[in-house]
Input
Amino acid sequence: MPVTLKEVAELAGVSTSAVSRTFTEGASVSAKMRAKVHAAAEQLGYAPNVLASGLSTGRTKLIGLISNNFHNPIFLEVFDRFTRGLQERGLRPLIVNLTEETDPFNSVRLLRQYSVDGVIVASSTLPPAFALAFRQAGMPVVHTFGRRSAHPEVDVIGIDNVACGAQARRTLIERGYRRIAFLGGPEQATSTQDRLKGFLRGRADGVTVSYSFADAYSFEAGRDEMTRLLQSEDAEAFFCADDVLSIGAIAALRGAGRRVPQDVGIIGLNDMEMAGWESIDLTTIHQPISAIIEASIDRVIALLGDPRARPQSQVLSCRLVERGTLRRRDGPQDT
Amino acid sequence: MPVTLKEVAELAGVSTSAVSRTFTEGASVSAKMRAKVHAAAEQLGYAPNVLASGLSTGRTKLIGLISNNFHNPIFLEVFDRFTRGLQERGLRPLIVNLTEETDPFNSVRLLRQYSVDGVIVASSTLPPAFALAFRQAGMPVVHTFGRRSAHPEVDVIGIDNVACGAQARRTLIERGYRRIAFLGGPEQATSTQDRLKGFLRGRADGVTVSYSFADAYSFEAGRDEMTRLLQSEDAEAFFCADDVLSIGAIAALRGAGRRVPQDVGIIGLNDMEMAGWESIDLTTIHQPISAIIEASIDRVIALLGDPRARPQSQVLSCRLVERGTLRRRDGPQDT
DNA sequence: CGCCATATTGCAACCGGTTGCAAAGGGGGT
DNA sequence: ACCCCCTTTGCAACCGGTTGCAATATGGCG
Output
């Protein structure tokens, strides 16, 4: 049913090589030949089969896109950017939805079966070894939202989570909060570990710091953990490791009759679109999602050209976005 | 670098056909042969190349998944379900992110180039002709969230949008609202057209009905349109064609000092996860997303087996989910 | 033990393109 | 018109598997 190169060659009265070359960037074809072939191809509605050509060239223009965060609204933005960015550059994302799994074995096999050109692991909850497995299997890989490192084993692009944790601490203290707490995502997530690390760092200054973890980066998990905390914890302000956790936590607080920000302050991280909605209005640390994703795509493309490039960490900077869930610097808010 | 069938054949000391057959469901291979081949394959870490085999068999196990709703949080659920459901059945989604485009030409070419086995168009804003183009190009196609029809030209799976519109109208009238309005998505979206149609249908009963459209199914669009309406419209209750529109509309209302539900009632459609969050607490009509997606996947698989099956419409039913943005049946709420 | 039907195996062509190599074509200079 | 050199073209092998067909092996039965 679909038109093949051979049919075009016959119609144009030339060899299959000639047709192939007209559709290959930089191949040696005369203008006359090119015109003849294009005419025939046009007439038949021919489009070369990427997968067949991939068999010879070893490039399928397929990029494995692996994630496990399908419950965090931020990932809608992430997917939008990735899929658009990749397709604008002539690449196709092949999605792998990891739900529970953290063992890379199956994913590696899968992506090998589809001979993807490269892999992007977009997750801050998968262990570093996960992305590494792809590199060891010989595939170019970029770990987006991974943990930065001075001597990374795979390319990593993201933010400095330790610095973000420190910034959150600093912000809360500046606002006059003295009993502050960290509400993390899964304890195994490198992003949570690092944000906590930064949050704990610093002089005591008469400040009480505590922390705990939610099961996942999700609304439910945030709400559940805050509900649990309400029985014992009495922090004045929380740094939630993610916006959606913050929103869940706020729901629990309000459900228990605590006002935000008058009784309890909340600061999140990500600045997802929704954080700016009036009903949410979350003070948060902005993570430059678009820039991170652009950089990830650029990097994976660079790796396609030079697969043995030395892995590097790219760190993009974050900034505070002031909204309505933290009291102002100048002391307690009026009720 | 990757292990090929030929290497396995050599190691096992058998023909390549034998190896191929051991990995082919239902092929004729003796137990002894199978064991020998498996041993060799195991040792080498062999996994057959799906794309190469697709070249001969004509099946790539790739399913094109086309959507243009990357700004509606409901699509996070949609992607999660689709990607999981497909991969559980051994298929891989190949995502196409349509942003502005409504011309199927490029998408058809693209998916042909990747010789996908089938296509799922997951959108209620694309015209019916879009999905049809794939069928005409010879690909099995399912239009998820498409417009139902007694004699559809392509398989459609979704809800009865006209009935939903009618249910929304009935619900608002039962609650005692007398000036009611429809706030739609894009006017070209079949879902908006049909929901409006159902909403307008029925006796006058001293009820005033009006309607208008937002530019997109998005928070921004809902907020903007409601902001505009606030200058002239004075409906007591709105049926917003989508939850995210509702949330945007509520933001605009509250921003203008109107209370929901005391001053204005809002009912949405979808019942996305977020609609149940305490800060949102949206009364809405539940669309059975999971069931729709399961049915879509089952249907596309059925079509793989029988590509010339007669297209059919599957309609799943919706139900009202009572939350906090509509006053109760028994009259005006206390303030 | 021989015969025949059935199950298993290998050969070789093919899926849709790509590409190294050698042959053919074209242009410029004399 | 001739020669030389650079372009353009076609041939044929190959990418990693699949599969129809014929050859071979196996098993059952008399």
